[in-house]
Amino acid sequence: MAAVFLVTLYEYSPLFYITVVFVCFLVTSGLVLGWFGLGVPVILRNSEETESSTRVLKKRMRQVKNPFGLEIPHPATASVTKGVTLTPDCLEDCILTCYWGCSVQKLHEALQKHAYCFRIKTPQALEDALYSEYLYRQQYFIKKNDKEEKYCQLPEDAQVVDFGPVPRARYPLVALLTLADEEDREIYDIISMVAVIHIPDGSYRLSCRVLYQYLLLAQGQYHDLKQLFMSANSTAPSSSDMSPGVRSTDRSLLEKAGLAEEPELHEENSKDCVVCQNGTVNWVLLPCRHACLCDGCIKYFQQCPMCRQFVQESFPLCSKKEQDEDEPTHILQDVLPG
């Protein structure tokens, strides 16, 4: 039909025919090149200069101060028979309570009770929720900003050398951090922290590490504290320092437990955006949890540039106001010698 129309038009007036074809060419070129701003897919423009047509949802975040910190300073020497060293770092006076051989089922029931029944803000509250389903308990008083190492070990008469094959009915070690003073519990939104720690034993040689961390809020919610993944050079010992055999063994054990680690990524500058290599990394992408984009590049991506997973939500590490407050300090550091 279109061909018959064009032939008829040419026979009627060749000049008019050429004009119509030229106008159609201009209109088509304008649509392809995006001259008219109609949201037509752009195919000839650099992808880095094109904003994503579908906006990624910006997750609304609320800044909450966490008074609790817990580290394992010597994971290589930890074992069920030799014990483990923990280093708490708290903003207020706290109580560290360690439960060896804590029941997995009872612990998660206790977390549900915190949400629906009563608040776990003291060691006694957690013990009531656990119904004494643990093998041994140790408790330490932690002074404010005191980073003294605390040594935790099962007694010899416990005669425990392992906690059985995976999946296990008991966690090797559960550490509870609670605020010591009642007044402090009224100040902080986060009133306690539960850390599930793996300790290597005879049947499961995965190296010592924190498996889960739960932050318990005064309002009844609890949140699983997740690690963010970003390119960084670290001076701390990493899995890259281990032998290939140890790394592969650890990874296979993690995969069996459903806790496979994110591969380590190394870049020359941990603060640089992985796309433009110029802006400061400020945006975390969900659900992959990669912190890899700056404020300028976040609007161009619907997929994570590191793992290619589709981005459902994102949130900034710091607000624009906080960045503006930090900028004069950074400039001063660059100007001052040394």
Topology:
Elements: H1 2-12, H2 14-33, E1 57-58, E2 70-71, E3 84-88, E4 94-103, H3 104-116, H4 123-130, E5 136-142, E6 150-152, E7 170-179, H5 182-187, E8 190-198, E9 209-217, E10 222-224, H6 244-256, E11 283-286, E12 290-293, E13 313-316, H7 320-335
Parallel strand pairs: 1-13
Antiparallel strand pairs: 2-3, 3-6, 4-5, 4-7, 7-8, 8-9, 9-10, 11-12, 11-13
How would you describe what is shown here?
- Helix content is about 25%, strand content about 20%.
- It is built from seven helices and 13 strands.
- The strands form three sheets. It has a six-stranded antiparallel beta sheet. A four-stranded mixed beta sheet has the order 1-13-11-12, with no helix packed on it.
- Strand 11 and strand 12 form a beta hairpin.
- Helix 1 crosses helix 2.
- The longest helix has 20 residues.
